[in-house]
Design goal:
alpha/beta; Leucine-rich repeat, LRR (right-handed beta-alpha superhelix); 2 domains; 5-stranded mixed β-sheet; 4-stranded parallel β-sheet
């Protein structure tokens, strides 16, 4: 029995009949994980079942290292705290979550996949932890109320459509120097439709978008 399954049984035994065997728990555990990995949350029959388990207190996302694609697609949540063990946020995980105003990331998060926060109109500020090294295309596209974004030093230049239609983005707070920004992050095509008054706050100086675009 894996440590994850032991934890699952220990946390949730009270919610099931005592006569159920370890094999039964394993089936329940695997079905919950499969539901999260393969189905848009709340958007199909299995997704609805997952919501029922959530209301009873079972949180199968605790046993994953990635929030699955479409995890909270179209959710009406106003805020969400990503579990501390999550290392990756899957494609379109929060896409279309129009009411999402606040999201808390874990300090060990490593990547944000494509479209993860696309069309999250309620977001005004995003603080990406320094542990993140990859942010994929369309990750924050159409976040048209986003005003401030904190970015770590990535292992790639910013993708062309990452910030599409972020028409109110005024401040980017970057963890590196101006030279590192231009060398490691800068992709002019990703910024050509953003407000020209955008300021990139680097550790040693500020860069005005209007001066480099």
């Amino acid at each position: 029995m894996t440590d994850q399954l032991k934890e699952f049984i220990r946390e949730n035994r009270r919610l099931f009949d005592k006569s159920e065997t370890e094999a039964d728990y394993l089936k329940i555990y695997q079905s919950l994980i499969n539901a999260l990995e393969t189905c848009a949350y709340g958007d199909c029959i299995v997704g609805e079942l997952t919501e029922v388990f959530f209301r009873k207190g079972i949180h199968p996302e605790r046993y994953l290292e990635e929030l699955p694609p479409y995890f909270l697609y179209g959710s009406t949540l106003h805020e969400y705290t990503v579990p501390s063990h999550i290392k990756s946020i899957g494609e379109y995980s929060f896409c279309g979550a129009l009411n999402l105003e606040k999201i808390q990331f874990p300090s060990n998060l490593q990547s944000i996949d494509g479209g993860a926060f696309e069309s999250c109109y309620g977001l005004k500020k995003l603080d990406i932890p320094s542990s993140v090294t990859k942010i994929s295309d369309f990750a924050f596209s159409d976040c048209n109320h986003l005003e401030a974004l904190h970015l770590p030093i990535l292992n790639h230049k910013i993708e062309t459509n990452t910030l599409d239609y972020c028409t109110n983005l005024s401040h980017i707070y970057f963890d590196g120097t101006a030279e590192e920004w231009m060398d490691k992050m800068w992709n002019k095509y990703a910024f050509q439709d953003l407000p020209k008054w955008l300021i990139i706050h680097c550790t040693d100086e500020n860069i005005e978008l209007n001066d480099i675009i």
